[in-house]
Automatic annotation (TrEMBL):
It comes from the Bacteria. Residues 281-418 form the N-acetylmuramoyl-L-alanine amidase domain. Keywords: Cell wall biogenesis/degradation, Hydrolase. It comes from Streptomyces misionensis. GO terms for molecular function: N-acetylmuramoyl-L-alanine amidase activity. It catalyses: Hydrolyzes the link between N-acetylmuramoyl residues and L-amino acid residues in certain cell-wall glycopeptides. It is an enzyme of class 3 (hydrolase). Gene3D superfamilies: Peptidoglycan recognition protein-like. This is N-acetylmuramoyl-L-alanine amidase. The keyword Hydrolase applies. InterPro entries: Amidase/PGRP_sf, Amidase_domain, NAMLAA_amidase_2. Residues 99-108 have a biased composition (Polar residues).
Length: 681
């Protein structure tokens, strides 16, 4: 298959290809020489060639071009499909003609008030501290790239090679605007790299450039979602020349890592009527009155500008942080000491921090951006270190993994961020990679499909029953028998009428997700059965392309002589623990069976507690603590709890996931080798 020739670049000279270019441009390109290869021999390296050709034609070091693309998209093309931010192709070129401007940060609105106000239509506020005067806030503009390369804009949306050339042209144009030479030294391109995504504040721009140069130094290799094999060898000697001296821009009251900018947009705590109703969060004194144990990952299912309005409404829900898709900008709404109303389970709310990510689970083609993943991982690492939260999937989980507090509420529980959130990559960025910890015949498995190549069928993204666009997924599907034609396991909580589980993108009843651990019930050939919702659930798990890997841990099983024990969505205190004047919160077992002989993977014991937060108060309500302890288990796609007194522990002891502090060495800036090892298996 012949690779089409890219359009000639105005004022550019295209005088050589492959071998001749590798010799003639050796001083110009980054230190990576490709083995000469014809198009017919290596169609899976067309993108690799495109980086080489564009770097040569526009006089941009190839390592810079590839490093920028990696931090933009990890080299994935998503042909013709824009991200949530409206970016296309491996360079994430934003088509500003088709997409409205990014939701502004609160500080850019002149003090953070996004509610309509008398001064809202006045003169624009002066640039906040930490924003360079005159800095362009336009992202890498697809329309401008089209003009620079002479290619139609439509081609840059759909053709990865044309998109790469557009990115190279933008980098070269920015370098010229800065009055700098088109140098062959990657370090000379720091400021051009810093400006590429159009990030308006200095701190975020510098962090972006740091990420790019970390990739250049460390190197990277992966097979993209489109099957392109792309490599960037490490250049450990590359160092940037520019050193930023500005302090990070953190709005007063925010709790954020130093390497990101962070705004404040307050969620209200106020009465809403004369009957004592209030919103939209509760005062607390965490971790003094209640340990923070979880971080819950959400997606917004709306544009961030709409969510900013929602979080300021006292009659709506609340969450602690929002993260913008276009550049990963963080806005805080609720102090972490206080309890936001975000998970649908007050027990989890009391012990968690909620983070919303701008995105849409039902639009897999409108993909989550790499900058949002990276910014989120930085925030989670910071919070996990601050509150000693283990970096594992039992403590860092999605809204779709939060247990229902009662059986009646199961059908109403949310299902974001959904099957297209890349948990494997996310934990690589956290510096706590998901990986095998035991042999393939172990009694415990961790769900771990290869995200890029694992593309199960989903329906309902656009209309009921219609297939969703093919897309990588963190979710594996579970069957009643070791046969993909067998019925899916039926969830009596989600479908209390006895209805079958479906392949609908919102139906969690027959799915497990990357990083979750389960006890093995049986193995047959390429199939593995796990204990799930009180029954055996089968997943296809071929040895050559596993979707679950061996893990160590401990399991719980009903005490000897007990036929069945209850499973709960909350770990509530015993009746005697409630003081006089505080009404007991009734226990509500979930409509599932945990029978003798079954096993579920468990963490250590947790204390029972209840917080009677139902009144508008000036000081936090006291926490009711019980003597009863519970085990947290992975019961299905959601976590659950069982009384310690009901179970025996079996299996080897296990510690929780790595701490944020011990994971710092493999953080987002330096984890490119683990980020992509899944594609090398």
């Amino acid at each position: 298959m012949k690779r089409p020739t890219a359009p000639r670049v105005p004022n550019g000279i295209r005088v050589c290809r492959r071998t001749a270019c590798a010799i003639g441009a050796a001083a110009l390109l980054a230190p990576l020489l490709l083995t000469p290869m014809t198009d017919d021999e290596a169609p899976e390296q067309r993108l690799q060639y495109a980086f080489s050709d564009a770097a040569h034609d526009f006089h941009v070091p190839r390592s810079v071009l590839m490093g920028v693309s990696y931090v933009q998209t990890r080299w994935d093309a998503h042909p013709g499909s824009p991200s949530v931010a409206g970016g296309y192709g491996p360079m994430h070129l934003v088509d500003t003609s088709q997409f409205p401007a990014t939701a502004p940060s609160p500080s850019a609105q002149g003090g953070g008030a996004l509610r309509p106000s008398a001064g809202a239509a006045g003169a624009p506020a002066a640039a906040p501290e930490g924003v360079l005067a005159g800095r362009s806030v336009k992202p890498a503009d697809l329309q401008r790239a089209a003009k620079l390369t002479g290619a139609p804009a439509g081609r840059l949306r759909t053709d990865a090679e044309a998109n790469v050339r557009g990115g190279a042209a933008l980098l070269a144009a920015t370098q010229r605007q800065l009055g700098k030479p088109l140098s062959d030294n990657p370090a000379d391109w720091w400021e051009a790299v810093e400006r590429f995504p159009g990030t308006p504040d200095v701190t975020s721009a510098a962090t972006y450039a740091n990420d790019v140069f970390a990739v250049i130094r460390k190197g990277a290799h992966r097979t993209t979602a489109e099957g392109q094999d792309v490599s960037l060898p490490a250049s450990p000697g590359v160092r940037a020349h520019t050193v930023r001296t500005e302090k990070p821009r953190h709005a007063k009251g925010t709790e954020c890592p130093v390497e990101v900018s962070c705004d404040w947009l307050a969620a209200p705590y106020e009465e809403i009527d004369d009957e004592g109703n209030y919103g939209n969060h509760d005062l607390a004194d965490r971790p003094r009155d209640q340990k923070i144990q979880y971080i819950v990952i959400h997606d917004t299912e709306a544009k961030l500008s709409s969510m900013f309005q929602t979080v300021q409404d006292p009659t709506e829900a609340s969450w602690h942080y929002s993260i913008r898709s276009s550049d990963g900008h963080i806005t805080q709404h609720v102090q972490t000491k206080d309890e936001a109303w975000h998970s649908g389970n007050q027990y989890v709310n009391a012990r968690s921090i909620g983070i919303e990510h701008e995105g849409f689970l039902r639009q897999p083609g409108t993909w989550f951006t790499e900058q949002m993943y990276r910014s989120s991982a930085r925030l989670v690492r910071y919070l996990a270190k601050k509150y000693e939260i283990p970096l594992d999937r039992q403590h860092i989980f999605g809204h779709d993994n939060v247990p229902s507090p009662t059986g009646d509420s199961i059908p109403d529980m949310h299902d974001d961020p959904g099957p297209f959130w890349d948990w494997r990559h996310y934990f690589d960025l956290l510096g706590a990679p998901l990986k095998p910890t035991a042999g393939p015949e172990s009694d415990i498995v961790t769900i771990l499909p290869d995200y890029a190549t694992h593309t199960p069928t989903f329906t309902g993204c656009r209309s009921a029953g219609a297939p969703c666009a093919k897309h990588g997924s963190s979710a594996v599907r579970l069957y009643t028998r070791p046969d993909e034609k067998a019925p899916l396991v039926q969830d009596p909580g989600r479908h209390p009428d006895g209805g079958a589980s479906t392949m609908d993108v919102d139906d969690l009843g027959s799915r497990a997700s990357a990083g979750q651990t389960f006890a093995v019930a049986e193995r047959r050939g390429d199939w593995t059965a796990i204990w799930y919702q009180g029954r055996k659930a089968w997943l296809e798990n071929p040895k050559k392309d596993p979707t679950a890997v061996g893990a160590v841990g401990k399991m719980v099983t009903p005490k000897q002589g007990v036929d069945e024990i209850p499973v709960f969505g909350r770990a509530l205190p015993e009746e005697e623990a409630y003081p006089e004047g505080v009404e007991e919160e009734p226990e509500a077992p979930l409509p599932y069976h945990f029978r003798a002989g079954q096993r579920y993977v468990a963490q250590g014991t947790i204390d029972s507690s209840f917080v009677p937060r139902s009144s508008f108060v000036d000081t936090p309500e006291p926490v009711v603590r019980g003597n009863e302890t519970y085990y947290q288990i992975q019961f299905d796609n959601r976590i659950a709890y069982v009384r310690s007194s009901d179970v025996d522990v079996v299996g080897a002891p296990v510690t929780a996931g790595p701490s944020a502090e011990t994971s710092a060495e493999t953080s987002a800036e330096t984890s490119t080798d683990t980020q992509d090892r899944s594609s090398d298996q």
